[in-house]
Amino acid sequence: MKKAILALVLAGALVMSLAGCGAQPQGMAASQTVTVNGTGEVEAIPDIAILQLGVESKGATSEAARSANAEAINATVEAVKELGVAEEDVQTSNMYLRPTYGDAGNVTGYRMSVDMEITVRDISKAGEVIDAAIGSGSNTLDRFSYSISNESDLYGQALEAAVKSARLTAEKLAAADGRTVGKMISVTEYGSGVVVRENPETGGGANKARAMADTTVMAGTDTISAQVEVVFELQ
Questions:
Q1: Taking a C-beta distance cutoff of 8 angstroms, is the pair 205, 143 a contact?
Q2: Is residue 27 exposed (0-12), middle (13-18) or buried (19+ Cβ within 10 Å)?
Q3: Which residue from 25, 77, 85, 231 has the least number of CB within 10 angstroms?
Q4: What is the 3-state secondary structure of the chain?
Q5: Burial class (CB in 10 A: 0-12, 13-18, 19+), 124
Q6: Are 140 and 56 in contact (CB under 8 A)?
Q7: How far apart, in whole angstroms, are the C-alpha atoms of residue 211 and residue 209?
């Protein structure tokens, strides 16, 4: 009796298994893909200089400190405008006026500070602009950096190069298995950046201007990079 019941159970399982096979489409294979990373780079010479400088002034009264500061700021703006810097490329920020105190805690005067950011779109004049700004009254120089006017276009080129690099890697992997790469299924952009190759003659980095005794500006070369992750179909 037990053998008969076991036989019926096995027979039922076999019928269910065959039914499942019949529901699966014939000749269909699971889609196979390969996921790879790609990096693209484009080199460019910066054509814009960005100066961050300012004016700090002191006076016996708050009005005296403010007046001296305004005079130096206005003189700086006029000086750099004469060198071709547009007024909209001069921006003031971080303005403050504070009292100064003596040892006894009494107010001895006032100090006013205003920061300025000047964008020099003719990079060949960057050194002259620094000299003009300092010569006309600016007495702080906090940062000197470079930029590229068509950076977005160059980044697009770097992206294209990154995708091509990813396909090349996928083709090599596929060839190792005797297969070929088909269409691109998806792509994810996950990294970008601009790397400045420091010029040893200017000290490199963001504070180049501080190392320039003669205020000579040497832009060097920037590398714009893009990174992607791409999924390709395998054939």
A1: no
A2: exposed
A3: 25
A4: CHHHHHHHHHHHHHHHHHHHHHHCCCCCCCCCEEEEEEEEEEEECCCEEEEEEEEEEEECCHHHHHHHHHHHHHHHHHHHHHCCCCHHHEEEEEEEEEEEECCCCCEEEEEEEEEEEEEECCHHHHHHHHHHHHHCCCCEEEEEEEECCCHHHHHHHHHHHHHHHHHHHHHHHHHHCCCCEEEEEEEEEEEEEEEEECCCCCCCCCEHHHHCCCCCCCCCEEEEEEEEEEEEEEC
A5: exposed
A6: yes
A7: 5
Q: What is the mean pLDDT of each run of 10 residues along the chain (235 residues)?
A: 37 36 43 89 92 95 96 95 94 93 94 96 92 93 89 92 95 91 92 57 40 61 91 93
Threshold 0.70, pTM exceeds: no
